[in-house]
Design brief:
Layout: E1 21-22, H1 31-53, H2 80-97, E2 100-105, H3 111-120, H4 123-127, H5 135-144, H6 172-180, E3 186-193, H7 200-205, E4 219-226, H8 242-251, E5 254-260, H9 264-292, E6 300-306, E7 316-317, E8 320-321, H10 340-351, H11 355-358, H12 367-370, E9 414-416, H13 417-431, E10 436-440, E11 458-459, E12 474-475, E13 480-482, H14 486-498, E14 502-508, H15 516-529, E15 541-546, H16 564-569, E16 576-579, H17 584-596, E17 601-605, E18 610-612, H18 617-626, E19 628-630, E20 644-649, H19 651-667, E21 673-678, H20 696-703, E22 709-713, H21 717-723, E23 733-736, H22 747-753, H23 758-768, H24 777-797, H25 802-805
Parallel strand pairs: 2-3, 3-4, 4-6, 5-6, 10-13, 10-14, 11-12, 14-15, 15-17, 16-17, 20-21, 20-22, 22-23
Antiparallel strand pairs: 1-5, 7-8, 9-18, 19-21
Length: 811
């Protein structure tokens, strides 16, 4: 191994260098154990460096030549040694205490550490037989890393044991906690990068310990890796005092244990003692809670590991620092193609790990080191929890029809769409009390899903006040997960379903944008998983978007943004689905489908207020099955060509479109109006581009080849134009939707400002029907007058007129 110089900064207490300094004292490793663990670590580090540089001569059985290295050097070295160090020491405890554990890698681009462990444990060769445990397999293992046709430099889905890619930083802690809810014997060992710790999502996720029930849940053991640098800057937490750092994590509710230094042998003893102390504390906490049956919130242990950036690399290259500095973050020696001396330094560095002592003549790790790894499913790289679809059991689903709203006549009955869904989710929860949870940022009550509380409360392990009994709905064993961080609850849900369970998140539409990036990362994860036969399908990620733009008239402009749908529509058709059910029965049918589905992200958009109901249950099921269709009861073009097609997508836009259709038939009795509703947004996309898409023939059968279509959409109108841009009749389709016009409005006035109201739609239809452009002038004028009167009423009285608020389908 490269020579390590003991260097202490002026503030020696926060230096990464020197003999180990640790909170927990002791030397639990015998000399023989210490030698073997250090050798196993060297083997792992050798593999890490080999992945960065080599495409041939994997064990340096001959002098290293430039042509045996990769022409393009990609990947990251900086966190690998610390991650492998932690992983190996936890393996010892898995063997000693028969632990059920997984490893979550938080540092960005830290894949070599976990890939090397999967290879040494044999899991990698089991999953990918061509990456065999021999010289030829090692050569292929090295070459594929960050190489065209190979794998990326994160812990991508191709990595056995990974549930967390780390492509975007900040989600490791929340994912880890998501895996241990309802997994009482699981320990998720999560490596948290100190650069990652500067993100908002990571900062909030430390509070996840307040939601961990030591009776029914497992435990998370965070290891904060202070290696000091990001790409080109120091990290914040690595440059604060010991006192400040300890106070921070005590304040978060943890007991922090420090392991710091660079001397391998003393660091091995310190880490072995510290991790063992943490495991014993976790077991003690759980045993007490489970023996007494009393849930409590302990100060769970965590580890602060301070080691040099790029630990064990050369300290300097020429006059520049490598190990212990930001230059070790990515590829430490990058000029081997142009500098023969650098190539020689690389070879010396790799040989310092003494690979000839670690691997036999065939390239396989020697038996006495192989024996250190756990066996079978106890290997963290082979734990089925990290391939959660293997453990997933379908939900026990109640009959959603039992929650149906009775609809005797379309457009007359009033009911709450999301409250009706709440009744269904209550029964889903009742029948699945071990593997289904509902997540949200402080909005389950606000979003009208409070029926769930009849079965299960909100989990809360914090302090309780007497007034909490008055509608607080808190309980240590609750299954509703709320914290006012969209990032954290989204991360919990992702971890929960990635480890084999089911769930749903509900959030206000304007603020679901907070998790745009998390959604992106999960979609990419699923898309890549679809290419891997060994990755078993997981439950779909279900997002209920409510608190919608058209009913944010009271909160104003800041709360009006339906643009999350635009983000979703950018993702692969193989993984995303968007549903906008127009009424409660359609919402029930959609929810039943989504909760039973696998490997999708289902976005359901539904308002929480009281709305008109249109379809009885059987009609709703048929409509949901089709995804888009003609509502015959709202049309009068039977047996004839329509003059205009009034189309809608979304609950509020549907009501306004129906009102517009009624106005047209009232003012122009001779007009033939077809009414179309789109529930599955991707029906609009050609079937060659999305599996849900309509063929052109099906599309024209609904929307006609050449008649004007006035389409009222829930979101930004240009999204519809994006989706239909290849349709033959696309120029006949005129879309209305939200156009960034809003303030404190009445509901109708907000729609008027965006030209998505009944009057604007009817006027637009008259303008686009050739035979009524002249004869329809008086009707048009009457509608303009009604619209003006509606606005004036709103400005004077602050509410819409009763004929607007009490409108029902008149035919």
């Amino acid at each position: 191994m490269a020579t390590i110089t003991k260097e202490m900064s002026d503030n020696g207490a926060i230096s990464a260098y020197g003999t180990a300094r640790s909170t927990v004292k002791g030397a639990p490793l015998s000399p023989e154990e210490l030698d073997k663990i250090d050798a196993y670590w060297r083997a792992s580090l050798y593999l890490c460096v080999g992945m960065l540089y080599l495409k041939d001569n994997p064990l340096l059985r001959e002098p290293l030549k430039l042509e045996q290295t990769k022409a393009r050097l990609l990947g990251h070295w900086g966190s690998d040694a610390g991650q492998a160090f932690t992983y190996i020491h936890f393996n010892r405890l898995i063997n000693k205490y028969d632990l059920n554990a997984i490893f979550i890698s938080g540092p960005g681009h830290g894949a070599p550490a976990v890939l090397s462990q999967a290879y040494l444990e044999g899991t990698y060769s089991e999953v990918y037989p061509d990456k065999s445990e021999d010289l030829a397999g090692m050569q292929r293992f090295f070459k594929q890393f960050s190489f065209p046709g190979g794998i990326g430099s994160h812990a991508t889905p191709e990595t056995p044991g990974s549930i967390h890619e780390g492509g975007e930083l900040g989600y490791s802690i929340s994912h880890a906690y998501g895996t241990v809810y309802d997994q009482p014997d699981l320990i998720s060992l999560v490596m948290v990068g100190d650069g990652e710790s500067e993100t908002g999502p990571l900062a909030t996720s430390w509070h996840s310990n307040k939601f961990l029930n030591p009776i029914t849940d497992g435990a998370v053991l965070p290891v904060l890796h202070l290696n000091g640098y990001k790409i080109n800057n120091p990290t914040v937490l690595a440059r604060v005092s010991h006192e400040e750092l300890e106070a921070l994590f005590v304040g978060y509710g943890y007991t922090p244990y420090f392991v710091e230094g660079s001397d391998p042998r003393t660091m091995h003893q310190a880490m072995a003692a510290t991790l063992e102390q943490c495991v014993l504390e976790i077991r003690k906490i759980q045993e007490e809670a489970r023996r007494t049956g009393k849930a409590f919130r302990p100060r769970w242990p965590m580890v602060v590991l301070r080691s040099p950036k790029g630990w064990t690399a050369p300290r300097k290259l020429g006059e520049h620092y490598l190990e212990g500095y930001w230059r070790a973050h990515q590829v430490p020696i990058a000029d081997i193609a142009t500098n023969a001396a650098s190539l020689k330094v690389l070879e010396q560095w790799m040989r310092s790990y003494k690979p000839e002592e670690l691997f036999d003549k065939n390239g396989r790790i020697i038996p006495e080191l192989k024996a250190l790894a756990p066996k079978g499913h106890r290997r963290m790289s082979a734990n089925p929890i990290a391939n959660g679809g293997l453990l997933r059991k379908p939900l026990e689903m109640p009959d959603f029809r039992s929650a149906a709203v009775e609809v005797k006549k379309p457009g007359v009955t009033l009911a709450g769409n999301v409250p009706t869904l709440g009744n269904f989710l209550r029964e889903v929860m009742r029948q699945n009390m071990q593997n289904f949870r509902v997540f949200g940022p402080d909005e389950t009550e606000s979003n009208q899903l409070q029926a769930i509380y009849e079965v299960s409360k909100k989990v809360w392990l914090g302090e309780y006040f007497p007034e909490d009994a008055d509608g607080g709905e808190l309980a240590p064993n609750g299954r509703v997960m709320e914290m006012l961080s969209e990032h954290t609850v989204e991360g919990w849900l992702e971890g929960y379903i990635l480890s084999g369970r089911h769930g749903l998140i509900n959030s206000y539409e304007p603020f679901i944008h907070v998790v745009d990036s998390m959604f992106n990362q999960h979609a990419k994860w699923l898309e890549k998983c679809n290419e891997l036969s060994w990755r078993a399908p997981i439950s779909s990620l279900n997002l209920l978007i409510t608190g919608l733009v058209w009913r944010q008239d009271h909160n104003g402009f800041t709360h009006q943004d339906p643009g999350f749908l635009d983000v979703v529509a950018n993702k692969s058709p193989s993984v995303v689905r968007i549903y906008l059910p127009p009424d409660a029965n359609c919402l029930l049918s959609v929810a039943d489908h989504c909760l039973s589905s696998i490997n999708y992200i289902n976005v359901i958009v539904a308002d929480k207020k009281v709305h008109l109901q249109y379809l009885d249950m059987e009609a709703a099921i048929a409509h949901c099955t089709k995804g888009a269709g003609i509502w015959d009861w709202a049309s009068n073009d039977q047996g004839a060509e329509p003059d205009v097609v009034m189309a809608s997508c979304g609950d509020v836009p549907t009501m306004e479109s129906l009102a517009a259709a009624a106005l047209l038939r009232e003012h122009l009795p001779d007009a033939k109006v077809r009414f179309v509703n789109v529930l599955d947004l991707f029906k609009l996309v050609p079937n060659t581009e999305h599996p849900h898409g309509l063929s052109d023939r099906e599309f024209e059968a609904i929307f006609t080849p050449d008649k004007p279509v006035v389409f009222n959409f829930h979101g930004y109108p240009w999204l519809i134009h994006r989706l239909i841009y290849r349709r033959p009749g696309q120029h006949n389709i005129h879309v209305r939707g939200y156009k960034e016009q809003g303030n404190i409005n009445t509901p109708l006035e907000l729609a008027i400002r965006n030209q998505a109201d009944r009057f604007s739609l009817a006027i637009d239809a008259i303008d686009r029907m050739p035979r009524f452009r002249v004869s329809g002038a008086s009707a048009r004028e009457a509608l303009v007058n009604q619209q003006i009167a509606a606005k004036e009423h709103a400005y004077e009285f602050g509410v819409d007129r009763s004929e607007i608020t009490d409108w029902k389908w008149p035919f």
